[in-house]
Amino acid sequence: MSEPSAYDLLREEVRRLSSQGIQLQTIIPVELPAELCPRRRKKQATGEWEPVLKSGAMQPAITGKNPSFWRGDGEPQLISHARPVPPEVLLERIAIAERLGKEIGLAVIPGGDVVSIDFDTKHYGSVQTLEEDWMNLVDRYPVLADTRMERTPSGGVHIYVRVTDRMVSWQRPGGGLHCNFTTEQGGPHRGEVLAGTRVSVCAPTRNGKGPSL
Fold it and tell me: Which helix (H) or strand (E) covers residue 161, if one does?
């Protein structure tokens, strides 16, 4: 029996996560050249759209981590972070990407009760240090061992949890959410809590650096 393709694995995950009430979106899991798909903004004075420049260079609209998909004509399409779609639409987009031979992936859109705790390697001296910190946290809170955990291609970790207060305790006075976290009182910044419209790329997405696991 042949091994399932990357597209088959994505389809399986769509069905599994959707059945658990998790909101999803597709992503193009690689950064596309700014010349192909530039980031644009509307000028308030004229209402016209113009490329976003940084140090004189155009910036890419599709970064490999934002909701997007391939249209049937092979063109990339950005979509809103705030618009989860039903499983049938996700499966159709995966089928189009498969037909075109294009890379496609999935991202969880955290809702009011599901967030992703993102341990980022750049906030640690090494992947080993991150590993020790993460496992110490699981030892202190064994309930975390019963939830979904993923290793990212860069060596980071995503832990998905359901929160009991719909992130009320994380809200800033002026709106938005406190998203940075540490694993000890007064300790260093270790990562972000992905909530609201901050999507979390999830397994089995491949981004060219290796699969999420």
Answer: strand 157-162
